[in-house]
Amino acid sequence: MTTSEGIARPVAADSSRAPGPAPTGPTAPPGPSGLAAPSGPSGLAAPSGPSGLAGLLRGRGLRRGQDDFAVELDGFNLITEHDPDLIAVVADAADVRAAVAYAAARELPIAVQATGHGPSNPADRGLLISTRKLRGVTIDPLARSARAEGGVQWYEVVQAAAEYGLAPLSGSSPLTGVTGYTLGGGLGLLARRYGYAADLVTAVEVVTADGRAHRATADRDTDLFWALRGGTGNFGVVTALEFGLVPVARLYGGGLFFPGDAAADVLHAWRVWTGSVPDELTSSFALLRLPDIEAVPDFLRGRLTAHIRIAHLGSADSGADLVAPLRAAAPLVVDTLAEIPYTRSGEIHTDPIEPMPYHARSLMLRELDETAADGLLALAGPGADCIDLVVELRQLGGALGRPAPVPNAVDHRDAAFALSTVSLPDGRPPLVVDGMAPWGTGRRLLNLLASPDTAHLARTGYEPATYARLADVKARVDPKNLFRFNHNIPPLAQPARPL
Ligand SMILES: Cc1cc2nc3c(=O)[nH]c(=O)nc-3n(C[C@H](O)[C@H](O)[C@H](O)COP(=O)(O)OP(=O)(O)OC[C@H]3O[C@@H](n4cnc5c(N)ncnc54)[C@H](O)[C@@H]3O)c2cc1C
């Protein structure tokens, strides 16, 4: 997703809520906390005291109607908001165990939120566990690995890893949560060279619906380990992830912006060009229709713009050689390509940093031949009846087309491009994504779906066998579907075998 905000104003989204140092690019939320007692009309629990939720936590517990309740619900995508009876702002993994056990004993459904970048199925009751206070990050430079607690945002890992010349497989926005992003696969800026973020995960610390803590690895809780990496937030509350880092300190990256009336030339040039680039180059093409508001830089305001985003693992000279055909595709409006440290990688897409309401939709494409590109231009190019803010194509292939070192639940290895759109709430059906169905695999990257109207689409994130296995693991770790406020994979009625 892209807006111009990060180009002109790389400032904190809400620095009053941001613990720790500010990132170099677009910055971050999180914030206050406090615990109180569940009770009230729902009769869910005693007020504060040893028997109430508040008495069980080191963090905060709040019930509907209390001060700060609304503040703790705040998330990035304002298209919807959870509406639980209780919130647990957990301070550590023990709090997560206590909160889950509390909910399980009362059969309360549980929602989990870190940043609110990926809402789907909002809670209408039950308990919301806010992980945004779980902010620990540890880097092991020798092992080239990181451990990030369940509420960490990417910019925190990016900065910590950069001290050792390392980088995580983070995505376009430094503000998304490491955990939510990775559980959904994680399609990042270096993806064609290194694969999905979930592919580099080596351990997941998770509290399942029975309140038990697991450390799932390739050797322990192996089915759970498989499911967590790609199966989204269906299997428990992740308290920490461990994952590999890659030796990337600098890259040749940024964006090429072209006038909207050159969109056809630019898209066709990019499409042909993607057929010959090495895996070291990950790129995307976007049609931007950004509003005529002050937050958007002049050159993008109130007009159609074609935007190519580049992340090249190589020297500036080799990168410039590679992108020469793109620069020649049409007259450029703005060219930000340069050698940059990975800490500035948020400038490549320049995603929005201020909360806003939007739908995000996606479809994986088998191919992008000339007809498909023309189809997209007819749906979203100059003169099209399209009001999507962003229509984006990410090139896949390379490591994304190869199996993970330890098999996981991320499918899509056969897809060639990921199409996604971002639109304001306007009541329209997803015309662009639906219109591109003839070139689609029929599957969607769940990470690139947001808003309640995508809540029923979990099945489309997987091949049938993968989905069936996920539903089986779900039945073994969450048979009552307590973790249902997500792209939900309901449990199989009869699991195949115990975990
Ligand atoms: C501006 C922007 C840019 C993005 N760029 C990319 C990108 O480049 N590549 C990509 O793959 N995706 C991208 N995404 C999608 C993003 O990765 C998903 O929306 C992801 O789910 C966000 O996780 P979060 O924790 O930040 O959001 P939240 O809304 O807080 O969480 C989303 C869901 O993740 C689950 N979850 C979060 N934390 C936990 C936890 N600790 N334990 C269990 N479940 C948890 C829950 O089910 C929750 O409902 C982008 C989204 C936005 C808004």
TrEMBL record:
Database matches in Pfam families: BBE, FAD_binding_4
UniProt feature, compositional bias: Pro residues: 20-32
Region Disordered, residue ranges: 1-52
Gene3D superfamilies, sorted: 3.30.465.10, 3.40.462.20, Uridine Diphospho-n-acetylenolpyruvylglucosamine Reductase, domain 2 (3.30.43.10)
Residue stretches making up the FAD-binding PCMH-type domain: 80-248
TM region positions: none
Cited InterPro entries: BBE, FAD-bd_PCMH, FAD-bd_PCMH-like_sf, FAD-bd_PCMH_sub1, FAD-bd_PCMH_sub2, FAD-linked_Oxidoreductase, Oxid_FAD_bind_N, Oxy_OxRdtase_FAD_BS
Record bears the keyword DNA-binding: no
Cofactor: FAD
Low complexity bias spans: 33-52
GO molecular function: FAD binding; oxidoreductase activity
Keywords in alphabetical order: FAD, Flavoprotein, Oxidoreductase
Family (UniProt): Belongs to the oxygen-dependent FAD-linked oxidoreductase family.
Protein name: FAD-binding protein
